[in-house]
Design goal:
The complex is a heterodimer of chains A (about 200) and B (about 70).
Chain A: H1 2-23, E1 29-31, E2 33-40, E3 46-52, E4 63-64, E5 70-77, E6 82-90, E7 93-100, E8 108-114, E9 130-140, E10 142-151, H2 160-181, E11 184-186, H3 188-193
Parallel strand pairs in A: 4-10
Antiparallel strand pairs in A: 1-10, 2-3, 2-5, 5-8, 6-7, 6-9, 9-10
Chain B: E1 2-4, H1 7-27, H2 35-55, E2 59-61
Classes of the chains: A alpha+beta (about 200), B mainly alpha (about 70).
Chain lengths: ~200, ~70
């Protein structure tokens, strides 16, 4: 009975973990600003586009980028923001921070980011991996926050994450089998002399 | 007689299985890749692994009975 309750508790935790992603933010969003982005591949050919708020960059339709390519952006803030700091997070981890003086008091900006300089996502962005990305600009005059999802190019089988996961899961299954097969009845004296391993 | 269980083995089984399942789910795009989600799935795996060690059915005795005369 006690074991059954423990098993039900474990199943409950698994269910909670699987339901959590469904309740997470699932759409590209922007507050205090608008952004339009176009990605290009390593060969310079257009790859994908998205706008926030707007279409693309959602969990169901993540913005596709090639880490050997680039992303061109056009953005505007609702108010003039000066002496600002910006933060970019990916997968919940800060990957870039900096400051923007904006002494010209501009409300729009455009440019191109060479993704080969963003090495923190290398090895992760392949196949169907969807990574939530958030950008925040905070300074005198206001705050701008943009969030969405990005994915990489290539098939799932090209992802080192997949094969690392398969290897780790196989090792885990082997250890689980060893745990199951190693559960044996032992004399009380032997158990007292031994201990858990 | 007492069951000899292996919670430490169960811990590592759950750790590797949980992390592996998480990476597979991320690679296939089933769940978004976040560090928090990696932690949650791995911790669930560890709990399952340790739980498995405690609920695993007891197999035959590992100590042969000592014959007495």
């Amino acid at each position: 009975m006690r074991h059954r309750r423990a098993a039900l508790g474990i199943l409950g935790m698994v269910a909670v973990a699987l339901v959590l992603p469904a309740s997470a933010a699932s759409a590209a969003d922007a507050n205090g600003c608008t952004v339009a982005v176009v990605s290009t591949g390593a060969d310079g050919a257009p790859l994908d586009k998205a706008t926030a708020p707007g279409t693309g960059g959602t969990q169901d339709d993540p913005f596709k980028i090639d880490l050997a390519g680039s992303v061109a952006y056009v953005g505007g803030t609702s108010a003039v923001i000066t002496d600002a700091t910006y933060t970019v997070t990916a997968a919940g981890v800060t990957i870039k921070t900096g400051t923007v003086a904006n002494s010209d008091k501009k409300k729009t900006a455009k440019g191109t980011v060479d993704l080969s300089t963003v090495q923190s996502l290398k090895g992760l962005l392949a196949g169907g991996v969807k990574i939530p990305v958030t950008g925040t600009l905070t300074g005198t005059g206001g705050t701008c926050t943009v969030s969405g999802f990005v994915t990489g190019v290539g098939s799932a089988t090209s992802s080192p994450l997949l094969w690392g996961g398969v290897g780790s899961a196989a090792l885990g299954l082997a250890l689980a089998l060893w745990t199951l097969l190693g559960t044996k009845a032992a004399a009380v004296t032997a158990a007292a002399a031994g201990g858990a391993s | 007689m007492k069951a000899r269980r292996h919670p430490v083995r169960g811990f590592f089984a759950g750790l590797f299985l949980g992390a592996g399942v998480a990476w597979i789910l991320f690679a296939l795009g089933v769940v978004p890749f976040t560090v928090a989600m990696l932690g949650i799935i791995t911790v669930v795996g560890i709990v399952v692994g340790i739980g498995l060690a405690y609920v695993a059915p007891v197999r035959g005795s590992e100590d042969a009975p000592v014959a007495t005369t």
